[in-house]
Amino acid sequence: MEEDPDFFQTDGIENQYQMEDDDEAEFAARNVTLMSYMRTVKASEEAMEIDHSLTDDLQQKDFEEDCEQEQQNKSQSYNNLLQKNKTKKTCRKYTREKVVEFCCLMQEGWPIKAAANKSGIILATAYRYAQYYSQHQEIPDIWKPRGPPKEHILGEVHELFIRKLIDQRGTYTLEYLRETLMQNFPQVVISKTAFYHFIRDNCALSIKKFQLISEYRNSDETKQKRRKALQEWLADKDMDFEKNCVFLDEAGFNLHISRTRRWSRQRKPCKVLKPKSKGRNITILGAISLAGIIDISLRVPEVLGSASKKRSADGKVFKVAAKIGTRTEHFYNYLQNVLDVLNKNNLLGQYIVMDIAPIHKNESIRQLIESKGHKCAYLPPYSPFLNPIEEFWSKVKYHVKRSALDTNDTLTRRITKACQTVTLSDCQGWIRHSISFFQDCLDLAEMM
Questions:
Q1: Pairing of strands 292-300, 30-36
Q2: Alpha carbons 441 and 434: distance in angstroms, whole number
Q3: Residue 195: which residues within 8 A CB-CB, separation 6 or more?
Q4: What span, in angstroms and rounded, lies between the C-alpha atoms of 18 and 277?
Q5: Which of 69-73, 375-379, 410-414 has the highest mean pLDDT?
Q6: Is 68 exposed, middle or buried, given 0-12, 13-18 or 19+ CB atoms closer than 10 A?
Q7: CA 350, CA 390: separation in Å to the nearest integer?
Q8: Can you tell me the distance from the alpha carbon of 444 to that of 448, in angstroms, rounded to the nearest whole number?
Q9: Which residue intervals of 185-272 are DSSP H helices?
């Protein structure tokens, strides 16, 4: 399918939605379309609301960062000034021919300074060579002969031992692994640096950020449900992941979503001030298919009129506005929008693939989908890898996290730009990636 020039359309909405204080006013929940497939969306004035007090917080944060950067620049300038005032010493290596030439000139009666200038050796080194030559009557031996290459201390048996330890527990420290290895192999004595290089190069191991996975993902009951779902999908001759499936899900965002890694000076810890509030979470609902992005909408969170009471550390009681998550009626309204987009673009007879969240399995959801000429398909439990939209959220969040939000940027605009980086080939590749797990699910394999 060729890409339509209106493939990515946005509302022209700038998200001025910022974090809110706890005593915020009540407003109605609504969905705001950020991006839609082959459809022009009229700009809406109901996108987001400004919280001026928290905008001031962001401005204060920017001011503090500017002060810190200015202080670092001053320190760097001072260090550069000190470095320029230091006398630079360079280490020179002379070939054996030059040293022999210098010694021959001395034998011919040349002064040390003249012989040094003739052979190109600095005067301080020339005096040291002359002293050595006068004492030992031989040319200075400034080259250490290289011996045979060192044999590897660790071999295959040690590699298997280390791998077995790491398979037992992947959180062992490098020092613990080294000490355990030397305790079990008394003839082995190895430094920390050499052991690290062996771990990295020979064992092909590296430290990675681990991901927590529920133990229920690989329970016998879950494996059976996964196989049953796959068998039903494959038995349905009309269902095809690569032709007539639309994948739906929602993801949460907030103002302070950012990368968990940051540059820092050597030998200094990397610490970042944590905001007093991360702001209210907002929910983005998305739908993709082999044709690309179908619809991306923002659900503005709803605040209840009633508020709960909380007690602070100093004993004062204050009210906290109760917030509502995504409910069935919210998803119902969004689903209506998605189905309208499908029908307007003649994408009929689609299978709407969703997880088994309660808001997705409500009977009203099924009736709505079937009334529009489509069908429901529910993912088995603990099987996010079978939903290609999970990879979509991963790419969107990656681009949102690339840099922290400041007063010149807004969350909705950042999310919209991140969605625009998703290509048609991305969606097709994510769908094929999910299909690659089908056989493992049928074989009751463990999914990590």
A1: antiparallel
A2: 11
A3: 174, 177, 178, 181
A4: 11
A5: 375-379
A6: exposed
A7: 19
A8: 12
A9: 192-197, 220-235
pLDDT at 33: 74
Could you tell me if 7 and 38 are in contact, meaning their C-beta atoms sit under 8 angstroms apart? yes
Question: Do 35 and 431 form a contact (C-beta atoms < 8 A)?
Answer: no
Residue 361 CB partners (closer than 8 Å, separation 6+): 378
Three-state secondary-structure class, residue 351: strand
Phi, psi of 148 (to 5 degrees): -65, 150
Structure tokens at 124: 């301080």
Distance separating alpha carbons of residues 254 and 415, to the nearest angstrom: 11
The C-alpha atoms of residue 308 and residue 321 are separated, in whole angstroms, by 6
Instruction: Identify the three-state secondary structure at position 297.
Output: strand
Closest residue by Cα to residue 116 from 98, 130, 95, 102: 102
Among residues 3, 12, 2, the alpha carbon closest in space to that of 40 is found at 12
Q: Which of 306, 327, 251, 277 is nearest to 29 (CA)?
A: 327
Query: Which residue has 């001072």 as its token pair?
Result: 78
pLDDT at 448: 80
User: 300 near 29, Cβ under 8 Å?
Assistant: yes
Beta strands in 194-266 (DSSP E): 245-253
Amino acid at the residue 121:
I
Q: How many angstroms separate the CA atoms of 244 and 241, rounded?
A: 6
pTM: 0.61
Residue 145: the pLDDT is 55
Select from 6, 7, 5 the least CA-distant residue to 426.
Answer: 7
**Which residue(s) pair with 303 in the sheet?**
323
Instruction: Report d(CA 239, CA 352) in Å as an integer.
Output: 10
